[in-house]
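Good day; I would like, with your permission, to put a structural problem before you. The record follows directly beneath this note:
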Amino acid sequence: MALLEPRLKVGPDGYAGNYGCDKLELSTNIADFIALDYSRIDFENFLSTNTIAQVIFGFFYHTYEKHNRAELTIPSGLSQFEVMSMTTIRILSSVCRDVRMLLGDQKQPVSIYFKEPSEEAMRCFCNLKENRKIDSAVDIILRRNSSWDMPDNSCCRFFELVSTPKCEMNIFDISLNNYFVNFLLNETIKNKGSYGFPLCGWQQGEIEETIQFDHLCAVFERVQFVGYGQDWFSTNLIVTNPRKRVLEIVEQITTVRGMKLPGNRQFRRT
């Protein structure tokens, strides 16, 4: 990996400019209003087949702390009612105690937060993980790492994972069948080409030796890691600009299936 100079400016939590609007407002907890009857949900089947759910629960597993919030970007143009009517959102609201929408101008939803997953749902995810019934990239990348202390005087360093010949793989298969890549791809498209995801505790050598990170290089033009410490441990992953061939594949598939993507594209409402 090549060392990069820090060049990202992180604003305060909830800074409206990051979302392309003048002001932001956090909704009340909507979980109680839209949650489905858990006893009637085949949550194990849902979790084993749903891209968004696997990454969100992989995030909870990876970060340990149930009070950390998993954020999902909302495609522009959707109303609050449309968002709350999505099956995926309603099922996730049935297993997370705190679900809130971040509202922008004219109370238009820009993202949705999930916090405090139920113990039963987390046990279901762990059981699927133990039985190798979740996506391999979610399983490997969103692992649980040993805790590490970040010195107060640690400086932030950025690394970029450079594409190698082994990255030239079947991007059609990776783009569609790799849950973690599929999630990042959708979020990147919705966020105008760049998306950051919390990724803690990975060292440089581990990243370079893990083929699942090479898959990211096959799909995105830039794959960067943010981290701290003299020995350097990662804290965040940033992917930028899906490759042209990948977008062409997505466009072809969405045209055939009639999905809807953000903006001028179409986006599947799962």
Summary: The radius of gyration is 18 Å. The chain is about 40% helix and 20% strand. The mean pLDDT is 79. The beta strands are 2-4, 25-26, 70-73, 96-103, 109-117, 157-160, 194-198, 220-228, 233-242.
